[in-house]
Amino acid sequence: MLAPMDAAQAIADLEEISPQVREVVVIGADGAPAGSNLADEAAAARLAEGARKLVETGEAFRPGLAQLEVATLTGSVFVVRDGDRMIAATTTPEPTVGLVFYDLKTCLRSVEPPKRAAQHKATAQKPEGKDEDAAS
Question: Which of 34, 68, 91, 124 could hold 95 in an S-S bridge, CB 3.0 to 4.6 Å?
Fold first, then answer.
């Protein structure tokens, strides 16, 4: 298993290994972008919203949808779900579908969820041997 990392680092790693991927957004459990390689926050929000709509539509036909690809003449849109989080990406035309899905799954699973990251940080800052209930 990969060590958890922030979304920006995971996306940078994805871009390095997957040259077919163009635009990427990691979507948190709350539905908001948790990270993106897009410079414009509004564009990241549009890609996240489009991914949510694609999944919602796919769910109507195939409940439990885990991944999907929408192919167009100018490239594809991929969406992968892992629990309540998602990753969406656009690609060049005629991508290697299996490889893109694999890379997106790996990227999403390597991103540490914000709640877990906050808990990890709080645990790391808590002094050892201190029990708040032991004060008497």
Answer: 91
Q: Give every strand in the sheet of 75-82, ordered side by side.
A: 33-36, 21-27, 85-91, 75-82, 67-72
Q: How many residues does the chain have?
A: 136
Which residues face 87 on adjacent strands? 26, 80
SS3 letters across 64-76? CCCEEEEEECCEE
Q: What is the tens place of the pLDDT at every residue in 78-109?
A: 999 998 999 999 999 999 999 999 999 999 99
Burial label, 55 (beta-carbon count in 10 A; 0-12, 13-18, 19+): buried
Structure tokens belonging to residue 98: 């299996």
Whose tokens are 């899905």? That residue is 101
Q: What does each C-alpha distance from 79 to 39, 41, 46, 133 come to in angstroms?
A: 20, 19, 14, 47
Indicate if the pLDDT at residue 121 is higher than 70: no
